[in-house]
Structures are given as structure tokens and as C-alpha cells.
Amino acid sequence: MPLPRISAAVALTTLALAVTACGGDDKLDKGELNTKSGAICKEFEAKIKKIPQPAESSNPGEGGTESEQLAYFEKLAAVYGDFGDRLDDLEPADDVQDDWNALTKNVADSADATEQLVDQGKKKDKAGTEETTKELDRLSKEGDALSKKLGLTACDDI
Length: 158
Hints:
Blueprint: H1 2-21, H2 30-49, H3 66-88, H4 94-122, H5 126-150
Helix pairs in contact: 2-3, 3-4, 4-5
């Protein structure tokens, strides 16, 4: 009957190797989360700066023709979507998990609202764009508060 003991030993060794190979509990504490998310923020901040601004405007999304504004926001929504996906890949420690989940949901909601704004603009839905703009303002304030709570300093400009 030594076979079951060998099988159990092999199973435990395999499990230990699998946990080690997967990184075990490599969850990020607040400092590590700030560092890793900061690098992601800087990358996406650079991508946002490369999006052509509507003509005659130093403020994003203002000025230019309606089609230039729609093109700007369409590209912005895509970048925010990718940004949210990258942030979502980070695994925060349990003590910051809930706030991190709220932040990544906020980024996803902001990307969705920006896409909605583009759709409403294409349909010339003025009331809808006004409502979505208010929602984006609310999401921005909420995101700022969550970033501050998490101690994220590198994402201030996104």
C-alpha cells in the first residue's frame, strides 16, 4: 500500500510547484499598487496626449467641429477602455481590494459613458449628451476620491 502515499506526495509537490509558478499570493499592497498603476497611468496619459485635439482648443473636447469633437471622444473612450482593462489586471491586497474594485469599475463606467456620449452626439441627442456629461463629471469626482483614498498619485492627470 505505499502507492497512495507516493501519489499524495506527488500531488502535494505538484500543487506546491503550481502555486509557486503562479506566483502564490503576489497581491499588491498600497505602495506596490501605486507604483504599478502609476506606470500604467503614465503610459495611457501619453496615449491620450497623442489623440488629436479638436481645432482651436486648449481644453480637451472643446472647440472644433462637431465631427472633430466626436472623433476625439471616440478615441478617448477606446483608450479609457484599454486603460481600465490594464488596471483590472493588477491584483491588490485584500485590505484595498474593495476600493480598487470600485476604482476599476469607475474607469470602466467612464469609458462606457464616453462611448454613450459619442453615440448621443451622433444622434444629435442634446438632452442625452447633457445628462451623460453630468454623469461623467460625477464619475470624475468619484474617481478622484477613490484615487486619493488609495494613495494613487500618478493618475492625477487622467
